Structures are given as structure tokens and as C-alpha cells.
């Protein structure tokens, strides 16, 4: 009899379910799209019921397609987008749609909070405030939708709702909550002082019980077993924040190791042995029992390429269909034909938000009638790299040295893009075997909870192998640095212009 681990990843738009063997190989995967809704500009919501339906269907499909006996699933782990907010009543029923991490409804509210309480919140959480952090959104509900705030019995996160539907138990884990501006990282506990800063009366009683990612936090219920095809009683681990799970799934576990994730968000993270008290950083959060993660991030990564392809790459889509390959492969070929330094267009990848200010907008700069779509495409790739580099520079300024990084997310499948990252960032980039790092990280946590692995290091040794290694090419270092400097210069120049444009959009 073979043993398997099941990992679930509820991203911002896609639900993925992957079954792994103990050696970390992806045996089978299934996915479902979950429709996002945009009831107002900057708002991003989705039905929590749809999230669970997509998950239960993908689990059943994975079991059926694989032919695996559900009794051979040793344990289940899950992850999902971090932050946002999911509010449920005392029976676990939603009192409002789930809000995901690209939501910007609280952007200006957050900036006001940052000025008044930001420094004090940092002393508790070692995190900046940002628009879709759970703490900011909870305070926003208290101020703007008090009826919803009062109806909410428990504040949970995306993965926790799925875990509740699997087990019937409402709880969260330390990694997710520690990144949500609502946990005191000095004590690793909830703090009344912190909730007073956010002006959240009765806020702390709304917070869920916490488990370690590698704890058993529940077991599959009879109802969930009937919906999914799983066996009732199968252990379900505490779960893990998506960016932390991806780092674990890529084998990043020791202090000093880095992980770069180029997906919906630009994630740039380094394992630490203690939090860094430097308020110029974006956040610190918990990782293992004695490790932490410093994270610089913003919603400025590969989702910008998806947008560009959706609206401007009909010919590339047609070519991909004719050749039987992915449209991303066609785009990679077009970008690879253009040498570094051959394109003088700059792109700010701020379609879904930025690390600059709430009003920042995306834009192409320096375009003339001699430029074409292929050159714009190259500018999109490079602009996303520069967004990551701006975060890497902030980590460096905080005294963090990065010698090599594991690369994950959709961009990790692109050889030309991975090499671009290595050349621009100035250190080697490694890509491990497999495509689903987040689900693998969640599955590893489940394996530890069930006793399959003894700890993170044991799991990484058994389940993770490096597939590609990209060394930076010194010939292109100056080319990328010159363009990055101009990217940063434009960022500063555009600040007031973005505010004025936002005023136009708001009718002021």
C-alpha cells in the first residue's frame, strides 16, 4: 500500500488540489476557477460557497482521475492567499463575501491609519499597514459596515474557511495570522493593546484558535467525506500562509535562504532566526518553531502579464493554438528574441496595486510610433522584474544578504524570465522540480502532522530536488541597473500625477 498526501491551494482566482507521493512527486492535480466579483472600483470579492464547491469538486476529481484509494491519503494540508478577510457567524456561515488580497477598498483608510497608528502597530507586529491586510479590513468594516462587523462571530482567512468545511472546526494557524497585523510577534499571542490601536471593540474575541502548521487541527467530517470522496477521520493539518507554504515547497527552510515568487503578487522573502525591527521593511511573520520570514511584497507581478495577454495578444493565442503550445511559450519566444537593452520602453506593473502608494497606476513610458507589441511585451517582463528588484533592494538596505534564491510562481516556468531575474537581481536563481510549490508546502505540513516526516529538513531532503540553476550574466548587469534606476526615478516623478489622476477618476 502506498501513502499519499493531499495539498489544497485556494489562490485568488484558481483552486488547485494536488496529490503527492512521499517523495514529493505530483501524482495528479485538478483545478477550478473561482469567479471574482468587483462590486465597486478597487473591491475584489468572491463567494465563499463557490470557494468550497470548487475545492470539493477538485478533490473528488483528483481521487477519481488518480484511482488512488482515498484510505491511502495519510493527511491533508491546505493554503490560500494571505490576508483579505473572511467573516463567519457562530455557525460558520458567511456574513459577507470573502475579500481577497488584491482588494483596495481600504486604501485611503489605511493611509490615514498608517499616519496615526502605523508606528505603534509596528512595535507589536513588525509589519506595515496595507490596504487588504486583515487588521485594516476589520477596522474598515467597523467604521464603514458596522452591521457586518457586529454580525461576524469569527474572523478567519481563506484557507480557514475551506478547513472548516472539511472538518467542521473553525481555527487558523500562526503563519497566516502572524502576517495579518493582528498578532503580537513579541509574545506570539493576540494583544488587547493592538486591538485598541485599531479601535476594534470586542475584536479580540472574534479571533480564531491558533494551531501550528504542522499540528493536526481537525479531521475530515462525515459531511465533507460525502462531498469529496475522502475518508472521514483523515487528519487535516493547521495549514500555512501561501507565501510561506511556497517557500517550504521550494525547499527554503534555513536562515539566509530566500524565495522569490512571481505570481499574482511579487513576493520576496528571506528566512530569519529572529524578526528584523526595521520599519522600512514591509513585514515579518512566523515560519517554523524558531524561524521567521522577512517579506517584501506587492501585487505587481505576473498578473500584469496575464492582463496584457488577455487584451493585446490575440495573435499569440491563435499561434499557440495552431502549434499546440501555451500562449506563454509563444510570449517567451518573442521576449527571448530581444536582447537585454534593446527595448527602451519602461513599464510600471501597478495594474492591481503597488508598493508605492494607494493611487499608483500602471503605465508604459517612452513609447513612440516605432515601437511594436513585441517590445511592449518585453517591457512588461522587465517591469515585473524591476518591481521585484525594488523589494530586494529594501531587503538589502535592512542588512539582509541574499546569495541565491529559489524561484516559484508562474514565471518560474519561463527560462528567459528566470535568466532575466538572475541577471537583474545579481544572484543565482534556482527552480525545483514540480509546478505546485504552495500545495507541496501544505502537503509537507500535513506529512509532518501525520508523522510521515520528522520535520521541515527531513521533508525537504526527501521531497525536493533542484531542476534548473541560472547564473547571472555580468554582461547585462549594467543594462538592467540603468533601466531600474530610471524605473525608480519615474516612480518618484509620478507620485503627484497619480494623485491627480485618482482625483479625476473620483470626480473631484
Question: Can you walk through the features of this model?
Answer:
- This protein is α/β, with parallel strands linked by helices and 508 residues long.
- It folds into 2 domains: 4-238, Nucleotidyltransferase, domain 5 (2-Layer Sandwich), CATH 3.30.420; 303-401 and 472-505, ATPase, nucleotide binding domain (Nucleotidyltransferase, domain 5).
- The protein contains 18 helices and 22 strands.
- The strands form 7 sheets. The protein has a 7-stranded mixed beta sheet with strand order 16-17-15-14-20-21-22, with helices on both faces.
- The chain is globular and about 65 Å long.
- 53% of the residues are buried.
Quick tags:
Nucleotidyltransferase, domain 5; five-stranded mixed sheet; seven-stranded mixed sheet; 2 domains; globular; 508 residues; 41% helix; alpha/beta
Tell me the helix content. 40-55%
Number of domains: 2
Secondary-structure-based class equals: alpha/beta
Task: Characterize the quaternary organization of these chains.
Answer: single chain
The CATH class of the largest domain is: Alpha Beta
Strand order of the largest sheet: 16-17-15-14-20-21-22
End-to-end separation in angstroms reads 67 Å
Q: Do you know the CATH architecture of the largest domain?
A: 2-Layer Sandwich
- Characterize the main sheet: 7 strands, mixed
| Strand percent estimate | 15-25%
Rough shape? globular
Radius of gyration: 22 Å
Poorly predicted ranges: none
Amino acid at each position: 500500500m502506498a501513502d499519499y498526501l493531499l495539498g489544497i491551494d485556494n489562490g485568488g482566482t484558481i483552486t488547485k488540489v494536488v496529490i503527492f507521493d512521499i517523495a514529493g512527486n505530483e501524482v495528479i492535480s485538478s483545478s477550478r476557477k473561482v469567479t471574482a466579483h468587483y462590486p465597486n472600483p478597487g473591491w475584489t470579492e468572491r463567494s465563499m460557497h463557490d470557494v468550497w464547491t470548487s475545492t470539493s469538486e477538485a478533490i473528488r476529481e483528483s481521487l477519481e482521475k488518480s484511482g488512488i484509494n482515498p484510505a491511502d491519503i495519510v493527511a491533508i494540508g491546505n493554503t490560500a492567499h494571505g490576508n483579505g478577510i473572511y467573516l463567519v457567524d457562530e455557525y460558520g456561515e458567511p456574513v459577507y463575501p470573502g475579500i481577497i488580497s488584491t482588494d483596495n477598498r481600504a486604501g485611503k483608510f489605511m493611509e490615514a491609519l498608517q499616519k496615526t497608528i502605523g508606528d505603534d502597530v509596528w512595535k507589536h507586529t513588525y509589519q506595515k499597514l496595507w490596504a487588504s491586510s486583515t487588521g485594516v479590513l476589520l477596522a474598515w468594516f467597523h467604521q464603514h459596515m458596522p452591521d457586518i462587523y457586529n454580525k461576524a462571530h469569527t474572523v478567519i482567512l481563506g484557507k480557514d474557511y475551506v478547513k472548516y468545511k472539511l472538518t467542521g472546526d473553525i481555527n487558523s494557524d500562526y503563519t497566516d495570522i502572524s502576517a495579518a497585523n493582528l498578532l503580537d510577534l513579541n509574545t506570539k499571542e493576540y494583544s488587547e493593546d493592538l486591538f485598541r490601536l485599531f479601535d476594534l471593540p470586542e475584536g479580540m474575541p472574534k479571533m480564531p484558535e491558533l494551531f501550528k502548521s504542522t499540528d493536526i487541527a481537525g479531521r475530515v467530517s462525515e459531511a465533507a467525506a460525502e462531498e469529496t470522496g475522502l475518508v472521514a477521520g483523515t487528519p487535516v493539518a493547521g495549514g500555512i500562509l501561501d507565501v510561506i507554504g511556497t517557500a517550504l515547497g521550494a525547499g527554503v527552510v534555513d536562515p539566509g535562504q530566500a524565495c522569490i515568487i512571481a505570481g499574482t503578487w511579487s513576493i520576496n522573502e528571506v528566512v530569519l532566526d529572529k524578526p528584523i525591527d526595521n520599519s522600512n521593511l514591509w513585514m515579518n511573520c512566523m515560519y517554523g518553531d524558531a524561524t521567521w520570514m522577512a517579506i517584501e511584497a506587492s501585487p505587481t507581478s505576473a498578473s500584469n502579464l496575464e492582463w496584457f495577454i488577455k487584451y493585446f495578444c490575440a495573435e499569440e493565442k491563435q499561434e499557440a493554438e495552431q502549434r499546440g503550445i501555451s500562449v506563454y511559450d509563444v510570449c517567451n519566444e518573442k521576449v527571448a528574441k530581444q536582447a537585454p537593452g534593446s527595448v527602451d520602453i519602461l513599464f510600471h506593473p501597478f495594474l492591481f496595486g503597488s508598493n508605492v502608494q494607494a493611487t499608483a497606476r500602471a503605465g508604459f513610458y517612452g513609447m513612440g510610433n516605432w515601437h511594436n507589441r513585441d517590445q511592449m511585451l518585453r517591457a512588461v517582463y522587465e517591469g515585473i522584474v524591476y518591481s521585484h528588484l525594488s523589494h530586494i533592494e529594501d531587503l538589502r538596505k535592512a542588512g539582509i544578504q541574499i546569495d541565491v534564491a529559489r524561484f516559484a510562481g508562474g514565471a518560474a516556468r519561463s527560462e528567459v524570465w528566470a535568466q532575466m531575474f538572475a541577471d537583474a537581481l545579481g544572484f543565482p536563481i534556482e527552480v525545483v522540480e514540480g509546478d505546485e510549490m504552495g500545495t507541496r508546502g501544505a502537503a509537507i505540513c500535513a506529512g509532518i502532522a501525520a508523522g510521515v516526516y520528522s520535520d521541515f529538513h527531513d521533508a525537504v531532503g526527501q521531497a525536493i530536488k533542484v531542476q534548473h540553476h541560472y547564473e547571472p550574466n555580468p554582461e547585462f548587469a549594467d543594462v538592467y541597473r540603468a533601466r531600474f534606476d530610471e524605473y525608480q526615478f519615474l516612480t518618484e516623478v509620478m507620485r503627484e500625477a497619480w494623485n491627480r489622476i485618482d482625483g479625476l477618476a473620483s470626480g473631484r
